[in-house]
Amino acid sequence: xxxxxxxxxxxxxxxxxxxxxxxxxxxxxxxxxxxxxxxxxxxxxxxxxxxxxxxxxxxxxxxxxxxxxxxxxxxxxxxxxxxxxxxxxxxxxxxxxxxxxxxxxxxxxxxxxxxxxxxxxxxxxxxxxxxxxxxxxxxxxxxxxxxxxxxxxxxxxxxxxxxxxxxxxxxxxxxxxxxxxxxxxxxxxxxxxxxxxxxxxxxxxxxxxxxxxxxxxxxxxxxxxxxxxxxxxxxxxxxxxxxxxxxxxxxxxxxxxxxxxxxxxxxxxxxxxxxxxxxxxxxxxxxxxxxxxxxxxxxxxxxxxxxxxxxxxxxxxxxxxxxxxxxxxxxxxxxxxxxxxxxxxxxxxxxxxxxxxxxxxxxxxxxxxxxxxxxxxxxxxxxxxxxxxxxxxxxxxxxxxxxxxxxxxxxxxxxxxxxxxxxxxxxxxxxxxxxxxxxxxxxxxxxxxxxxx
Amino acid sequence: xxxxxxxxxxxxxxxxxxxxxxxxxxxxxxxxxxxxxxxxxxxxxxxxxxxxxxxxxxxxxxxxxxxxxxxxxxxxxxxxxxxxxxxxxxxxxxxxxxxxxxxxxxxxxxxxxxxxxxxxxxxxxxxxxxxxxxxxxxxxxxxxxxxxxxxxxxxxxxxxxxxxxxxxxxxxxxxxxxxxxxxxxxxxxxxxxxxxxxxxxxxxxxxxxxxxxxxxxxxxxxxxxxxxxxxxxxxxxxxxxxxxxxxxxxxxxxxxxxxxxxxxxxxxxxxxxxxxxxxxxxxxxxxxxxxxxxxxxxxxxxxxxxxxxxxxxxxxxxxxxxxxxxxxxxxxxxxxxxxxxxxxxxxxxxxxxxxxxxxxxxxxxxxxxxxxxxxxxxxxxxxxxxxxxxxxxxxxxxxxxxxxxxxxxxxxxxxxxxxxxxxxxxxxxxxxxxxxx
Lengths: 453, 437
Fold this sequence. Notes:
Chain B: Keywords: Iron, Iron-sulfur, Metal-binding, Oxidoreductase. By secondary structure, chain A is of the alpha/beta class. Chain A is 35% helix and 20% strand. Chain A has helices at residues 15-21, 31-39, 48-52, 59-67, 71-81, 85-91, 98-101, 104-108, 114-127, 150-161, 178-181, 192-201, 220-226, 255-264, 284-295, 316-324, 424-444, 449-452; strands spanning 8-9, 142-146, 165-170, 206-210, 229-232, 238-239, 252-254, 273-274, 276-280, 300-304, 328-330, 333-341, 344-356, 359-370, 373-376, 380-381, 392-393, 396-397, 410-412. In chain A, helix 15 (284-295) links the parallel strand 9 and strand 10. Chain B is α/β, with parallel strands linked by helices. In chain B, 28% of the residues lie in helices and 19% in strands. In chain B, the strands form 7 sheets. Chain B has an 8-stranded parallel barrel with strand order 3-4-7-8-9-10-15-16, surrounded by 7 helices. In chain B, helix 3 (115-126) packs across helix 5 and helix 5 runs parallel beside helix 6. In chain B, 45% of the residues are buried.
């Protein structure tokens, strides 16, 4: 089939190429490599890496535990703060979080490989199926969680530890949320997201009900009535539209759907991709879609972003990764019209932009890039159905520092809340902290009659 | 270029780097390789008396401790003296000396503490053409259980006696190798001198257990589940060796006695330090066993380049230069005041200086200044202890800066006294003497 044939086609590459292209981006450290990497940690006091971690993992301690031959103890240090530490080790933009803060950057411009070390420890514990947490005696309390993504899972696990019963409702077929559907395939190989879900749920006391969508199958009011507390850990199901001519042509696709399809495919040989692909956007989704389009055998992949390099949400590391895979990134270009031929995408007309008085302004100069596939990655929105009178702002749920919403007994965290960071690790922190807040709220109430008996 | 030629008690070698009596010098094969690599001399692996040779264990002989990235820091062994036939060794020594006339070849000897044993072996060694002998009074394992090695080295009277026999029965220079497994190294050195030794060499290895296997609870190295103390050496023992060399170098009774420095010498820098503390040459083992014989090339060029840079022409220019600066605590200047100073541009903000000082010392380094993470010395609290310098991962980031005479010491609230004053005259010292006028 090859990379040069026009149209949106599957199987552009020989089978072996797929396997190679979608293998682990950062292969796991072996024991020796882990010891060498761990030796570089200075065991800082009040360590900047720890401060930079949204879940405040005690990084110097877990690295010292690796260095002293105790990866299991190390994993517990990680899981104590972040039960999804395995996935975060793979998908965290460490280059803008812990590793950016590492003092070794100042010393020699090369941080300790915190992410890979975290993966080494958590992989070791999960491979040995080490379970560090047991449920406290049943509290008799029941909590409903909406969304089995990072926020919901972290919240559920912490609640289960405290002895509460949890029911998670998720609209999709599998748990994991973005960990399962929204991360580039080469960052989470070997079905890791599901393995992690199983590991988290093995504590017990957590039931997951799939195919259950808020606003379609139940409402927040239903949950509030049936449960002692509710945690909303929803993701962003909506995708922003381009609102330009040709948007409905065949070949104009949502990047998130493309990314999800890739993750659900075993071999990727069945995933069609265009010969010339244009990705619109400047965030991680744009990078993930563009890189994977290239890895599927697209001949030419171009990311077009309407602002400058410095405005891109994608980290420098991600941009470099895209460039290294042969993706071209072009800036100051916004879509104007999609050229359509026989109902299919033929190209995209873009207009140059500039900043005039701090405002993005089209310059009037346009150009056309030939394309047979266009991915939209210009942002996602929270589809807030069934939330009743819950206070919202900017399309997101308003919460306080503990994750409490405007409604008593309802907490929220993750991408659906105002001020969320669109990061797995932040979602985990919010879910975990909300669980603690819920637990405190229960403790403040009179004990249940059944618990007394 | 600096002249590294060495003359140690009349034994000449092209450089001061000798291989110590140890596994690397047990056979002609190894010694030939060492000389090819550039070593100035070797002390052949210790010879025992005629008869069936000693036997070694057939399990592990060596143990170790490691630093970061498994860099070997300390090493130990339970190997005995040569387990080859005496005459095989003697024949090989003779051949090697003929092949390498410009290199030093010293025979290490350990025979029972009876006059006849020494009287018997010395002529055999002399016949090889060896340049000298080294008396092994040092090995702390195995042979010491049979009344040899460190069992002799721990009794000054025996040292003196054996040295006297050796001086009586051979014309070869005698180097007495001392064990560090003793409370006061000056005593055996004095005894060796009293017996007429030409030199002492030190240190031999230190009694040690490198580790315990936490699955089997066997000491390491483990022989069928059991272990015995071995001789400790390598970089970790260097500070102990330096002190012992200095003690002998500055002892009025042994002052001027030639010393062959041994103990953890790994680089040219280590060698230069031993020579500065009075060693006439140095002997190396662990570094060679860790990295191979090639390291001598780094040692030769490093020492030579440093001497050139400093304008030292020969080894005599540096030998013993640090000895006058070694003193007793009571003579240290108590009016010398230093304060730690942190170079904020070099600081990588690891916080180690703060936590070390805060938890374990004098609470003299900040963690926050105006709410910002910032590490700065609080001069009012700093006693100048140097802990922060030692724990800082960045070289030269924290330095100890002496306060000039007359400057206010914010800790004591007094200006720094320009005069030297030590404990012997301090008012808090009940034994204080009146300061001499």
